[in-house]
Amino acid sequence: MARFAKGNPGKQKGSGCKVTRSAKEAIALAAEGLGGTDRLIAWVKEDALNERVFWGNIYPKLLPLQVSGDPQNPLSVVHKIERLIIDTKA
Predict the structure, then answer these.
(1) CB contact at 8 A, 75 and 69
(2) What are the angstrom distances between the C-alpha of 33 and each of 26, 27, 28?
(3) Which stretches of the chain score pLDDT less than 50?
């Protein structure tokens, strides 16, 4: 039987990779060893650029990746294509 044939879906949905899980655990332990939350707050307050990095790069990683709307009021996406003709002789 093929590894991912019908009836053999492979890994269970939502089960993560052991390497990824280990890496996340190692990073969390390192963060705690470096001062944890208190140190992160102090770092952000040290410089305006640090605060920019926090809000622009670090914090968004906590936000959900999927955007969903209300089923009664669904999100709509409008695609608009414009053609701009430039007269180079004018």
Answers:
(1) yes
(2) 10, 10, 9
(3) 1
Taking the CA atoms of 41, 43, 47 and 53 in sequence, report the sign of the dihedral they define. negative
Query: Which residues lie closer than 8 Å to 24 by C-beta, 6 or more apart?
Result: none
Q: What is the pLDDT of residue 53?
A: 94
Instruction: Give residue 30's pLDDT.
Output: 93
Q: What is the pLDDT of residue 85?
A: 85
Residue labelled with tokens 């770092």 = 43
- Name the residue with tokens 């707050």: 41
Return d(Cα 14, Cα 71) in angstroms, integer.
Answer: 24
DSSP H or E run through 29: helix 18-33
The pLDDT, as a whole number, for residue 84 is 85
